[in-house]
Amino acid sequence: KEGPGGLTVAEITNSLAESTIALQGAHVMTWQPHGQAPVLWLSRFGKFAPGKSIRGGVPVCWPWFGPHAEDAKLPGHGFARTVMWEVQETRAQPDGATFISFGLIETDATRAQWPHPSSAKLRVTVGAELKVELATRNTGSAPFQIGEALHTYFHISDVADMKIKGLEGCTYLDKVGGTTSKTQQGPIVIESEVDRVYLNTESDCLIEDLGLKRQIRIATRSSRSTVVWNPWIEKAEKMGDFGPEGYRGMVCVESANAVDNVVTVLPGAEHILQAMISVEALA
Ligand code: TA6
């Protein structure tokens, strides 16, 4: 049906959860298991317009993450989040969850930016858990490299009442004030702008939220990087689509393959990045 800004959205409601997914970007905008506060953060001040990335939910960054390595004119985080995808399959699962898959629609414009024969699919399972799989198949005869992220915005009660666990001891690139390499000591606490790419990450991440008395668990497969981002006051103001104090209620914990962890996809092979998101009560 028609969603905000005239975007076409799929609305999914089942016995376990509800979710809204825009066809532009195959962008999961909301996911709310019944009885829970929303798990994804979606800005109320976002642009919601054709060709503009939605601020919140799960933007799909593909086939590169951040600026393009060779051509600064190409869009940051790739084009997948701003082009149209089509629904390819929907299926009810035995446990009551809903499976829906999307394929990126190739056009002359996408081929001009990404001349490698390939297909991109996003498979989403909406249930008590949200599972998002980004599959890249190399349909050509030469290998190519991709960067990618499920750039997930999580809804939290307040950034001051939140900690991120699971990245202790990992090396990260700190992108605030120049790029430096650092090692994470203890859980992540956010008290100023944070923009970090954690490399070679293996463990589940937990967003512990004392205000909502819950923790969000992010389990992954074939994701070697985890990006953590909160723009804080000035940057959020400059971006113009966070709204007043918007930065306080969100944190991005992104399941990714970026920087040193970009992925080579061989001819005929399929690479699948997966994130499984669930919510647990805090004792
Ligand atoms: O993932 C973090 C990041 O790359 C930041 O550097 C930040 O600017 C952000 O993504 C949002 O990017 P966007 O292009 O959506 O404004």
TrEMBL record:
One of its GO terms (molecular function) is glucose-6-phosphate 1-epimerase activity. It is an enzyme of class 5 (isomerase). GO terms for biological process: carbohydrate metabolic process. Keywords: Isomerase. It catalyses: alpha-D-glucose 6-phosphate = beta-D-glucose 6-phosphate. GO terms for cellular component: cytoplasm. The active site is at 151, 254. Its EC number is 5.1.3.15. Belongs to the glucose-6-phosphate 1-epimerase family. This is Putative glucose-6-phosphate 1-epimerase. The lineage of its organism: Bacteria, Pseudomonadati, Pseudomonadota, Betaproteobacteria, Nitrosomonadales.
